[in-house]
Design brief:
65% of the residues lie in helices and 6% in strands. It is built from 24 helices and five strands. Belongs to the NOP5/NOP56 family.
């Protein structure tokens, strides 16, 4: 069992360093008596002793230190406290118990004479730190009742606000929520429209044969209401609901007069009209939400949206979790994104793996022939991967690259159909960059990150060495072939001699 010398307790009120006076046995920790002793302050206070308590200087200092600790970075304030309070021993290392394993690695790197143990590596450390958190209000000196709870609440709110405010995926989250809401609205509108047809069909069953669109049917049911009130005076208003088709509007009025539907009471008609109005409002909100999604995609991922469409691009971002995650995926993963069940089923049964996932909903794969669907899906996934990386790392949003990539996919489809030679990728990208510069935009290239060319004298010796090595290898091969050639000739001569002897004997 490892001996623990000190414990580090980072809390909402500051840093505290405790010295372990009495350490439990790892086997004894499982006993009920030992577990109850850890909950009793009078007994637990004899096991640890406070060495130093360094409270935060202000709220901003507390938030800064907690942010660094959450990322596994050793703050300067904590490092100075450890230097002052931990003894330096050249013979043996000091064992320090820490809660966070990433912070433990940073402390070990900064203090070579300190060995860190965490709750994952030592049950004793986990139990002692648990007891310190339980009795922190009494063990830490200079605190009043309720100070720890108030500090935890304030620091927790500040930490959460900072994480939400500076989240790099804050724009992606709106896209993910919008496309999820859009899918749910589509399911709900289809279901509710079917119920409107079933309900209003008792009163006017012939209307469905004239108008099959769900939204138009709901609008007509809301406008017509009782079919007996329908007359020629409402012809223009009905025509406006059916895309200005006066013939269809006249047909609706004619069939309303000879309809075989049953009469409905005012209460029933009122409920049907209310339900139809709700469906119409849902459909209008769905249209507004789609416009919002298009505008959001033009800001967050304009090239990917220009290449494959706003809805499919948003579904790819939703499936990946964020645009950053999508840009990290290789093209092979992006190609089958959304077809994970089919992929693992094919791997399990040793069958054919799927060729496409969410990108199947794009228009390109549907336009390709059956034999070319796999090839165009691989090519489209490659271009989507390029577009997502441009959108993720570009500083100024622009869809010029997306338009160029879309033209490349169109050319590839034409190449599969007619054999016309497509545009090269380098030419397409150069043309896109030229278009961006022509519009007065900047590519925002970081010139400091471009690799400088190597000096000429640094490359020449390597070439000479390579040429010498190649010559030596060729000479060795020639010598080896000459030796092999002599052996083969001699062997062939012996065989010929043997054959001649056999013929002579005969």
């Amino acid at each position: 069992m490892t001996r623990v010398d000190f414990l580090l307790h980072e809390s909402a009120v500051g840093y505290a360093i405790f010295k372990v006076v009495h350490q439990q046995d790892s086997v004894g920790l499982h006993l009920k008596e030992v577990q109850k002793a850890g909950q009793d302050l009078s007994k637990f206070g004899k096991m640890v002793q406070l060495v130093n308590f360094a409270p935060w200087r202000n709220a901003a200092d507390a938030l800064e230190n907690i942010n660094l600790i959450s990322e596994g970075i050793l703050p300067d304030y904590l490092q100075s406290n450890l230097e002052l309070n931990l003894p330096q021993s050249k013979k043996s290392k000091i064992i320090l118990g820490v809660a966070d394993k990433n912070l433990a690695g940073s402390i070990k790197a900064a203090f070579p004479g300190v060995e860190c143990e965490t709750g994952d590596t030592s049950e004793v450390v986990a139990d002692l730190l648990r007891g310190i958190r339980l009795h922190a209000a009494k063990l830490l000196k200079g605190l009043q009742e309720g100070d720890v709870e108030r500090a935890q609440l304030g620091l927790g709110h500040a930490y959460s606000r900072g994480k939400v405010k500076f989240n790099v995926h804050k724009n992606d989250n709106h896209i993910i929520r919008a496309i999820a809401t859009l899918d749910n609205l589509d399911k709900g509108i289809n279901l509710f429209s079917q119920k409107v047809r079933e309900w209003y069909g008792w009163h006017f069953p012939e209307l469905f044969n004239v108008v099959s669109d769900n939204l138009t049917y709901s609008r007509l049911a809301l406008f017509i209401g009782d079919k007996s009130t329908l007359s020629e005076d409402k012809l223009h208003e009905i025509a406006a609901l059916v895309n200005d088709d006066e013939e269809k509007a006249q047909e609706i009025i004619t069939k309303a007069k000879i309809s075989m539907g049953r009469e409905l009471s005012e209460v029933d008609m009122s409920n049907i009209s209310t339900f139809a109005g709700k469906v119409v409002k849902l459909a209008e909100y769905r249209r507004t939400l789609y416009s919002y999604l298009v505008d959001k995609m033009s800001t967050v991922a304009p090239n990917l949206a220009a290449l494959i469409g706003e809805v499919v691009a948003a579904r790819l971002i939703q499936k990946a979790g964020s645009l950053t995650n999508l840009s990290k995926y290789p093209a092979s993963t992006l190609q089958i994104l959304g077809a994970e069940k089919a992929l693992f089923r094919a791997l399990k049964t040793k069958g054919n793996t799927p060729k496409f996932g969410l990108i199947y909903h794009s228009s390109y794969i549907g336009r390709a022939s059956q034999k070319d669907k796999g090839r165009i899906s691989r090519y489209l996934a490659n271009k989507c991967s390029i577009a997502s990386r441009i959108d993720n790392f570009a500083e100024q949003p622009s869809k010029k690259f997306g338009d160029a990539l879309r033209r490349q996919v169109e050319d590839r489809l034409e190449f599969y159909a007619t054999g016309k030679k497509p545009t090269k990728n380098a030419d397409a990208m150069n043309q896109a960059m030229a278009d961006i510069l022509a519009d007065g935009q900047s590519l925002a290239i970081d010139t400091e990150m471009i690799d400088a060319p190597l000096p000429q004298n640094a490359t020449t010796p390597k070439k000479e060495k390579k040429s010498k090595d190649k010559k030596d290898k060729k000479e060795k091969k020639r010598k080896h072939s000459d030796v092999n050639g002599q052996v083969e000739v001699e062997a062939d001569g012996d065989k010929k001699k043997k054959k001649k002897k056999k013929h002579a004997d005969e």
